[in-house]
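User: Fold this one for me? It's Glutamine--fructose-6-phosphate transaminase.
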Amino acid sequence: MTEHLPGAAGQSMSAEIAAQPEVLAASALRHSEIAEVARVVSARRPRFALLAARGSSDHAATYAKYLIEVLLQLPAGLVSPSATTLYGARPDLSDVLVISVSQSGGSPDLVEVTEVARGQGALTVAVTNTPDSPLNAVAELAVDIGAGPEVAVAATKTYTATLLSLYLLIDAVRGGKAEAVRDIGALAASALDDTEEQVAESVRRLRFVERVLTTGRGYSSASASEAALKLAETSYLAARAYSGADLLHGPVAAVDEETAVLAVTSKGNGGAAMVDVVKAVRERGADVLAVGSAAGEMDASSRLMLPDSSEEVAPILEILPLQRLALGLALARGGDPDNPRGLRKVTKTR
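Assistant: Here's what I get for Glutamine--fructose-6-phosphate transaminase.
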């Protein structure tokens, strides 16, 4: 993809997308550091896990929920921060693992949720890109995702570095040695470099679309949600994300030839479950862009093929060309994704 000149719209987002192979390769080398945190978690033997997050970090938390349920065989759920901050809920969290995910570590609601959870007996772990953040200060344990400063408002390298850090943590809790991400830097480079022309063509194809639906199953449902957010915040598109299963339970009725569908389909159980979903939306006339290592198996209008990987780490790769798609569409539609209207880098909520 063409590099943007200094001062050009989208230059920060473009640079941060391109930096991800290097960031991910470096993060994978921090396995032993994250394994120290994992050893404490393993020793405490939590009964179940809760995850607290907002925005892009909430999608990373959804990914972690699947990792915990599948790899650790523990029940896991997503926290509703408002239950604590607005309604004063104080549940007994003895022997519960609470992982709070925030790139900035500065959102007051997540800080309060984490502090309350620790006071209620939970083992609390902060996963952030800011080691000296308020969130780290109130959590018992902390994982630094190590993405470095991120300037663009839209999270790119911090998102994928968060996914990788969560994978390293949860894999280490089960006694894994991070074999599945040993070559993650090279895989990420391939995911970006090998899809460059196809992303540019997808930008031309989708430039004037006004309604986008993103969908995936299993681990890839996090990628579908994050893709919808990126399109909404950079291109101001009316983008909605649905699990492939939920899509067939009703929303598919709204799909027609005016709808663009981004289907995230990597090899594995989740991708196999998407075959019928993609077929259903194609039958309704939708323009379907399939993204992932299983894209070639889908009845799609166009494809962004990605390298094979373990299904549980595929979301780290799936989002990369979709970030570039969001960047390209924003620029093609006359916007500046580095300065989306009404948004700031750090959003503080309670």
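One thing worth pointing out: The chain has two domains: 11-181, 190-332.
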